[in-house]
Design goal:
Blueprint (H helix, E strand, L loop, with lengths): L11 H35 L6 H28 L7 H30 L6 H56 L6 H17 L4 H17 L5 E3 H16 L5 E8 L1 H4 L2 E3 L4 H11 L4 E11 L2 E10 L5 H19 L4 E7 L2 E9 L15
Parallel strand pairs: 2-4
Antiparallel strand pairs: 1-3, 4-5, 5-7, 6-7
Length: about 375
């Protein structure tokens, strides 16, 4: 017989699941048999009797097999009547009624099996005796099965919701990244995505924090327009978000130091002017094992001076910093004319980028960028 001759319900994967399910049920009830038999043996020994443990073991095994046959039906009913909203009360009442009926059926059937096992005809008196003795215990067993099933299903449902939530956040982050591809430097965006992918593979529990950080980073960039004025302190938060993202997973050892007064941080600058500089620094630091960055902001008369000094463990890419500065220089020329400047130099292993902008306090009425040229 080839594999193609298996019918749908008995394909090998489903057959394996069915065998595991059967083994789990039989194993659970065999543990109950061992416990009940040992409990009877110990009780008989303490009372001074000679325990017929072989008979007890056979009786308990027969009872357990009856329960093993009944358990799939109970699990099916528990699946059809979950104790969860929106029909929790209605299902709960139905479960209570079913538990009583199933307990009566189980007790009656147990009495019939006892008659069959002893070779006697089925007697109504034995059925009544079995119902009177076993109904309460059977109700407890059935209630435990229903409770365990609902507890396990609640845990699985919570895990499924959590996985769906993470996947939805990841999808949102990827969508926002695609929309921002023209805003962010392609190398920077790809570097961050690769880093997140490597961390999530090794530490799935870090997925939430990484996605939240990346989402905040992308939303911030989406919310900024090229002609918008923002606080210098808000622009430097972009660097904080990038460094927090890169620190996850412990792959990069990054240190940051900020030296700035409140008056300088309150200076208003055009949005996205510092973004190319910041992203180039982050790319430089993450090209190896990490490094350090120091941002010093000072006010020199009517100018705000921002100095970004980075030291990368890999030695740094001075050419990349010059390219970034060239792009910023062209933008500054169109906005401020000769009133703003940017220069890059290298001192040992450190690359310094110095940006000078006209100082504009938040209390100053907002003016068009063209007027500052």
């Amino acid at each position: 017989m080839t594999a193609a001759t298996f019918t749908a319900p008995f394909r090998p994967p489903r057959l394996r699941v069915l065998l595991r399910f059967t083994a789990c049920i039989l194993g659970s009830w065999m543990l109950v048999v061992l416990f009940a038999t040992s409990e009877f043996y110990r009780r008989s020994t303490v009372l001074g009797g000679a325990p017929p443990w072989q008979e007890v073991l056979g009786f308990q095994t027969c009872a357990a097999l009856i329960w093993a046959v009944l358990t799939p039906l109970v699990l099916f009913l528990a699946e059809r009547l979950p104790l969860r909203p929106p029909h929790r009360i209605r299902h709960g009442l139905s479960v209570i009624a079913l538990i009583v009926e199933l307990a009566l059926f189980r007790a009656a059937f147990g009495g019939m099996v006892l008659n069959w096992g002893e070779g006697d005809p089925i007697a109504l008196s034995m059925i009544k005796l079995s119902i009177g003795i076993r109904t309460h215990r059977d109700i407890v067993f059935l209630a435990v099965i229903f409770f365990i099933y609902n507890f396990v299903e609640a845990q699985r449902e919570g895990a499924r919701r959590e996985r769906h939530h993470v996947r939805a956040q990841a999808l949102l982050a990827r969508t926002e990244t695609d929309e921002l591809r023209m805003r962010l430097q392609p190398r920077f965006a790809l570097r961050m995505l690769r880093h997140i992918g490597s961390v999530v593979r090794d530490e799935p529990q870090a997925a939430d924090a990484l996605i939240v950080t990346l989402s905040a980073l992308l939303r911030r960039s989406m919310a900024r327009d090229d002609d918008e004025w923002i606080r210098l302190g808000d622009e430097l938060e972009h660097l904080d978000h990038c460094l927090d993202l890169c620190r996850a997973g412990g792959r990069f050892q990054l240190a940051a130091r900020y030296l700035a007064g409140d008056d300088v941080l309150a200076c208003r600058v055009p949005a996205l002017v510092l973004q190319p500089v910041i992203e180039t620094v982050v790319l430089d630091l993450t090209s190896g094992a990490g490094g350090s960055v120091e941002v010093r902001c000072t006010r020199e008369g009517n100018q705000a001076c921002i100095e970004v000094s980075s030291t990368a463990a890999s030695g740094g890419d001075f050419h990349a910093h010059e390219q970034s500065a060239a792009a910023v220089r062209a933008r500054l020329a169109s906005l401020y004319g000769g009133a703003a400047s940017i220069q890059v130099d290298q001192r040992g292993s450190a690359v310094n980028t110095i940006l000078r902008l006209p100082y504009q306090d938040v209390a100053t009425p907002e003016i068009p960028l063209e007027a500052t040229a």
